[in-house]
């Protein structure tokens, strides 16, 4: 989620006050020297991000089960741009006010995109214990019922919303809104939330005053106001939760699942170079601290869990001999399993930043951060009492809207129905991938007429309104072009390769102006400053602005899709990799179609649910 920029003075002062003396609090078995690990574990988890730590927690609840997590990055040191909500996303290259890239980020960039004027887009990914939950904008929301029901429609029994929902709540530790913010018409349904999980979800203690104007603008535009969007009805406007610890108003990450246990070991600073197989059975993991250094290995007696994320999971699979046989052979890699879907079906949400100014003197505003004195006063308020704007992010209010809310759905449906899906995929795409995409394309086309399925989100704040594409028709690819595990994956997102996506964003850009021109926002004199109504007026100008400015929302998925094998799937509905034994994938790469939501709350549920499958196998096999 894009945040407004704090001025440089505020950021430096914040760093000085917070960066020292706050080491990671994990007290369990931390390993930095590979010689200290056991020769064999029951389970080896590749990746210590969101899903990897959830699975590690649940498996290690059995004291007789040994678990090793291998993570390429370190533990974080609770730097301010990580812990303080207002500074969240500061270490993501395209967002925030922090350093552009860091030791906690793989610092990847996709290849140049022809539909973006050959622009390359930075593609951040967590290289740290906690993964993306350490870097993200802290938004904690779920999609609508339909977003998950279609997973089952694609051939995944047990992944409909009603079946999946209990696992999403299992991860959550929800705190209701406090009395001082409940007056903002914030309500909740306790049945939609969990209270015993390890990731906190709560509302911040501070609400930007303009949020009242945004709420009124939604009512003025007849957008449904949803009291609690976490129960499967998320097509409308609502207050959003944050992954926020209410005890000290700091970021809550998946590190909360890293409960100290003697049977749970965490090896940091090592990259998994490949999965080892014997006769199609995963027997261990090879790893190394870096290129040119010794490669070590560890054996596994039960399963390898691959949780390296949507960008690195396909890379590790291909390096291990799982992927398209012809492609792997061309690189000299011995084929373990011919699985063309590896790295295909890449999807991402896209954002489009549009800037604005608000009358500063009517209320506290994020625009006030241009005043260094005020900024430092607010920082001191956070330090002393954990109150004020530093307890939240750049906004409090979202709108996730169906297409019919902001455009003529009939025109889109006609265009989508006339498309031949294969024409928008790469020319060398395997027939199974084409079949899978055709099935997805049909569902996407059907949803264009739905009033309960969001097509775009609108991130609403004092200094910006940001349309975000939620249901992309475009599909990309992640692959390797080297046998070196230390070379980054080749990321070809193929943004806007299907023209329906840019049409959606054009409509979203126009609707952002409609919101801005509502009486409720004109009451606080909201004026567009970027690109400016005098600069961008025609559809052609809007489209050019989109191509020059569209960016990633960092919700990468689909590259090891949970789909039937004949539809280009990589894992089955229990997340087992097709054609081999002892290997599962548990991360965002398994998501066959993105939900209209920020991603973390969904992936927590995926990780919780797969633990049931692993438990069942352990119990009865």
Automatic annotation (TrEMBL):
**Pfam families (UniProt xref):** GMC_oxred_C, GMC_oxred_N
List residues binding FAD. 128, 136-139
SUPFAM superfamilies named among the record's database cross-references = FAD-linked reductases, C-terminal domain, FAD/NAD(P)-binding domain
Q: Which residues form the active site?
A: 555 (proton donor), 598 (proton acceptor)
Q: Which UniProt keywords apply?
A: FAD, Flavoprotein, Signal
**Leader peptide range in chain numbering:** 1-21
Q: Which residues form the Glucose-methanol-choline oxidoreductase N-terminal domain?
A: 126-149, 309-323
Give the coiled coil ranges.
none
Key word Protein transport present in the record?
no
Gene Ontology BP terms: secondary metabolite biosynthetic process
Per its UniProt record, what PROSITE patterns does this chain match?
A: GMC_OXRED_1 (PS00623), GMC_OXRED_2 (PS00624)
What does the record give as cofactor?
Answer: FAD
The terms under GO molecular function for this entry are: flavin adenine dinucleotide binding; oxidoreductase activity, acting on CH-OH group of donors
- Give the similarity note: Belongs to the GMC oxidoreductase family.
The name of this protein is GMC oxidoreductase
Q: To which species is this protein native?
A: Hyaloscypha variabilis (strain UAMH 11265 / GT02V1 / F) (Meliniomyces variabilis)
